[in-house]
Each structure stands twice: as structure tokens, then as C-alpha cells.
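Appendix C: a fully annotated inverse folding record. The material below is reproduced so that readers can follow the format used throughout the book. The structure is listed first as C-alpha cells, followed by the designed sequence.
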């Protein structure tokens, strides 16, 4: 691989803890942005008050909010192992869909009703905050606010889903007034999915994440933030004089504080998280129809579970194409293809053909459209042992912060999480005084539970039996 300035990116060889040097091609990044290989200065700065590791949604949003939270007088550097926004954020589905009732009952069981509701409320607030900033700053990122339709094609699963929905409604959470669930003969006609047995809907958003992040980066650079792409960080060591020595494959620099926003790869620098945040691959594709064909309009986003319960998310685009991904049930049995795997240069072999003919077999009226997969790619997510992200002070490492482990669900979480973390970093605000859901707080308890627990007891393999969140 050659960078846009003609240089070759540094490489540490194959490491589970660093991103692969050359990710596979992805629809969102076909037209390489001039920011992808940006370096604000030829050499690393000698010192920055705050060093952020990772230029994805979490790292860039944290820098944005730090500037707004009164850290504008501090120097900020973002060190990114590959190109800007080349990780999960630049390779995802663009579905910004708050969780209303999916995992919420699990969190209610583990930590009480309020702890579960806090997460749903935070994600809904996150979507609204995104809409607001996109409007205020006139950000060109294909944002839409529409309904997200949840579909179950398996009768038994639809019945179970309805029971879960009813439980959350019965808990009396006000936000559920925006959700509706349908059963009976009309379901297929309501959602347009063949064989649907149950469906629900609520407000959600869709967007082009790479464009959103690029906009934020331009603003940060104009405000003096130092971005260093193709700069993998290899270690953080406390400096006896104060602060930290940050070692990279391009040399060292000094940091006052460090923010770990490296998501799936976070345990490379913070090994205590090696059982808490596991790199797991996902698959995503773009489906198009031949020129001149006008298929039935689909202007809602979907989460669709087929008769065999294989789940796909679905994001329609104004250009007529569709972004679809998921299919985890198809590749889950082949653990080595997705679990603890950072290779986003290759597809997931067992699932690479799943979306061939997907529109024809799934949606009413699409049978003769000629829809086919135009681009397909993989990306690496940071799956969390208890499904919740880790945010806040790294235990026992004063001056270091973490914002990682978004469990394949960062779009409706990261923006406000970064805003609240920025308050902690810039103004010493304790986690408890932020508006973050309590279950997002990183803690020694969560670290130890995963380190001591069995892999199959956590949520990642789908066999989890975690009980209460606090001892
Ligand atoms: C295929 C796929 C589809 C998805 N679809 C959706 C969706 O539709 N909706 C949704 O909500 N979520 C989705 N997600 C998840 C979502 O993309 C993530 O939750 C979110 O982007 C996480 O942002 P991040 O900044 O934490 O991580 P990333 O975007 O991965 O950023 C981390 C960055 O850190 C860098 N880095 C790592 N290690 C180092 C190091 N040592 N030194 C320097 N830099 C380093 C990486 O190169 C990377 O750029 C999907 C993910 C994938 C892979």
C-alpha cells in the first residue's frame, strides 16, 4: 500500500492488537478523501496535553467535544494506526437505531428497570443530538430520520418478541410511546417483508458515517488539532516526570492525558481489557438495481429476522441503493472466521454469498428487479463481554481514559458518550455526574469479572449467563 504522499505506511507485522495495514475495499471509502492520509506535521509533536488513540467515531467525537468543553486552550493530538476513519466507523451499516426493547430487558434483569431505561433514553437522546448538530453545522452526510421497522418471520420468535415488547411497555417507560407492535394477518402488508409474522417500528436514523467524521475532522484541523494518520501506537508508559510516553511506529511523544478510542484493538495497549473487548468481524454490503429499473420504494430502515432467525440490518439510500449486513447466524458456527479476528482485508467466507438474491427473496415486489450485490466488505467491531461499552477512567491508571467496546452498536451511542467523556477529561467531572448510563462505566469489577469468567459465560458467544452487574 502507498499513501497519498507516496510514503509506505509503517507496519508491525501481523498483530492481533493492531489493525491490518490494508483493509479490503468498502463502498463508503471508494473515493479516498484527502484527509485519509493526513498528517498535520511531518514529525509527531513533542508533547500534547491530550493524546487520543484512534480516529474513528469515538476518537474524533471526543476531540470535537473537548474543544467545546473548554479544552480549546489545551493541545490535542489524534494518533491513528491507518487512514482517518478507516476502522469500523468507515465500514459500517450507517444505521443509527436506538435500542428500545432489544437488549433493554437484559439490562433491566441485571441492574434494575431504571438502569435499562437509562440506556434506551441515552440512545434516543443521542439520535436527537446528532440530528441537531447535523442541522446546525449543515453537515453533508446523507442523514435521514425515519422509522426503523423490526421484523420477525418466525412465528415463535415473533410471539417471544411481542412478550418482550409488552414487558417494556408495562414497565411504563415514556419513550415507548414512540414504538408500536403489529401481529396478525396485516403484518406482511405493513412491513412489506414476505412471510412476516410480527413487526414493530420506532424512530431511527441513517447516515453516511465517513462523511460525518470527515466534516468533524476538517473542523478539528482548522482549530489546531494535530492529526497523525498511519501512526500505530505500540505502548503507553508513565513518565516519572508526569504524564506519559507514547511510543509509536514513527517515534515517541509525550502526553498529559491519554484517551483510548481504539475500540476493537484497545487491549493491545490496555491488556486488562483482553477478555472484556474482543475484536469480532462483521459483514456488510451494498445492493443496487440495474440502470433504468425503479424498484418499490423502501424508505424505512429495517432489522429483519428471516424464518431461520438470521438477522440483517437494512438501510435504504436516496441513490436507490441499499446497505445490508448482519448474517451473524450464518457465520457464528465458524468461530475462527469472526471471533478474536482483526483481518478486515478478507471477507467472512461462510457468509460472503448470503446476500446474493436477498432483496428478491425478502421484500415484496422486488422479485424481478435484478437487484444484486455491488460491493461487499467486512469490518472489525469491539464486542463487549457484558454487551456494554467501557467508558471513563481506566482503573488504576490515572490520567488514562477509555471509550471503547461499542458491541457493533456505536452509531446511537458514541456521540453523546464522547461528549460526556470530554467533560471528564477536560474538567475532571466524575462519571457519576455525567449523563451516561451507569452500565457504561468501566470498572475493576467489570474487568475482573470477564478476566476471571469463562468465555462462554459472557454475551459475545450468545450463550451468556451473566447475572447481576454489581456484586
Ligand atoms: C460491518 C460493520 C457494520 C456495522 N454496522 C453498524 C450499524 O449499522 N449501526 C451501528 O450502530 N453500528 C454499526 N457497527 C459498529 C460501529 O461501526 C462501531 O460501534 C463504531 O464505529 C465504533 O467507533 P470507534 O471509533 O469506537 O471504532 P473505530 O471506528 O474502529 O475506530 C477505532 C480506530 O482506532 C484505530 N486504532 C486501533 N488501534 C490503534 C493503535 N494501536 N494506534 C492507533 N490507532 C489505533 C483503528 O485503526 C480505528 O481507526 C458496524 C460495524 C461493522 C464492522
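Designed amino acids, in order:
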Amino acid at each position: 500500500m502507498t499513501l497519498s504522499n507516496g510514503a509506505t505506511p509503517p507496519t508491525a507485522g501481523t498483530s492481533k492488537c493492531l489493525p491490518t495495514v490494508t483493509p479490503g475495499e468498502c463502498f463508503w471509502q471508494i473515493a479516498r478523501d484527502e484527509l485519509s492520509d493526513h498528517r498535520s506535521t511531518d514529525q509527531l509533536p513533542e508533547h500534547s496535553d491530550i493524546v487520543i488513540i484512534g480516529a474513528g467515531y469515538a476518537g474524533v467525537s471526543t476531540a470535537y467535544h473537548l474543544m467545546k468543553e473548554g479544552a480549546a486552550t489545551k493541545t490535542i493530538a489524534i494518533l491513528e494506526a491507518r487512514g482517518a476513519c478507516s476502522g469500523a466507523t468507515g465500514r459500517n451499516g450507517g444505521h443509527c437505531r436506538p435500542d428500545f426493547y432489544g437488549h433493554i430487558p437484559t439490562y433491566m434483569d441485571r441492574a434494575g428497570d431504571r438502569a435499562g431505561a437509562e440506556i434506551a433514553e441515552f440512545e434516543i437522546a443521542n439520535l436527537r443530538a446528532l440530528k441537531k448538530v447535523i442541522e446546525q453545522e449543515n453537515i453533508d452526510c446523507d442523514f435521514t430520520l425515519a422509522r426503523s421497522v423490526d421484523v420477525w418471520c418466525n412465528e415463535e420468535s415473533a410471539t417471544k418478541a411481542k412478550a418482550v415488547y409488552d414487558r417494556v411497555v408495562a414497565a411504563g417507560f415514556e419513550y415507548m410511546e414512540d414504538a408500536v407492535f403489529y401481529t396478525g394477518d396485516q403484518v406482511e402488508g405493513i412491513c412489506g417483508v414476505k412471510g412476516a409474522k410480527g413487526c414493530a417500528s420506532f424512530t431511527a436514523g441513517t447516515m453516511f458515517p465517513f462523511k460525518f467524521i470527515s466534516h468533524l475532522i476538517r473542523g478539528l484541523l482548522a482549530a489546531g488539532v494535530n492529526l497523525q494518520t498511519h501512526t500505530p501506537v505500540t505502548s503507553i508508559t508513565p513518565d516519572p516526570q508526569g504524564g506519559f510516553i507514547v511510543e509509536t511506529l514513527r517515534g515517541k511523544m509525550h502526553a498529559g492525558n491519554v484517551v483510548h478510542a481504539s475500540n476493537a484493538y484497545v487491549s493491545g495497549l490496555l491488556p486488562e481489557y483482553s477478555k472484556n473487548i474482543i475484536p469480532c468481524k462483521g459483514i456488510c454490503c451494498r445492493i443496487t438495481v440495474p440502470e433504468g429499473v425503479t424498484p418499490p420504494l423502501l424508505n424505512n430502515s429495517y432489522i429483519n429476522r428471516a424464518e431461520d432467525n438470521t438477522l440483517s440490518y437494512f438501510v435504504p439510500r436516496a441513490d436507490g441503493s441499499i446497505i445490508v449486513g448482519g448474517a451473524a447466524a450464518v457465520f457464528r458456527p465458524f468461530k475462527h472466521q469472526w471471533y478474536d479476528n482483526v483481518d478486515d482485508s478478507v471477507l467472512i467466507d461462510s457468509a460472503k454469498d448470503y446476500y446474493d438474491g436477498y432483496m428478491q427473496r425478502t421484500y415484496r415486489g422486488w422479485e424481478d428487479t435484478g437487484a444484486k450485490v455491488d460491493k461487499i466488505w467486512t469490518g472489525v467491531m469491539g464486542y463487549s463481554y457484558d454487551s456494554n461499552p467501557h467508558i471513563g477512567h481506566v482503573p488504576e491508571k490515572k490520567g488514562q481514559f477509555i471509550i471503547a467496546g461499542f458491541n457493533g452498536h456505536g452509531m446511537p451511542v458514541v456521540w453523546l458518550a464522547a461528549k460526556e467523556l470530554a467533560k471528564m477529561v477536560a474538567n475532571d467531572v466524575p462519571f457519576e455526574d455525567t449523563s451516561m448510563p451507569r452500565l457504561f462505566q468501566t470498572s475493576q469489577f467489570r474487568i475482573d469479572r470477564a478476566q476471571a469468567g469463562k468465555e462462554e459465560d459472557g454475551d459475545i458467544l450468545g450463550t451468556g449467563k451473566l447475572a447481576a452487574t454489581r456484586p
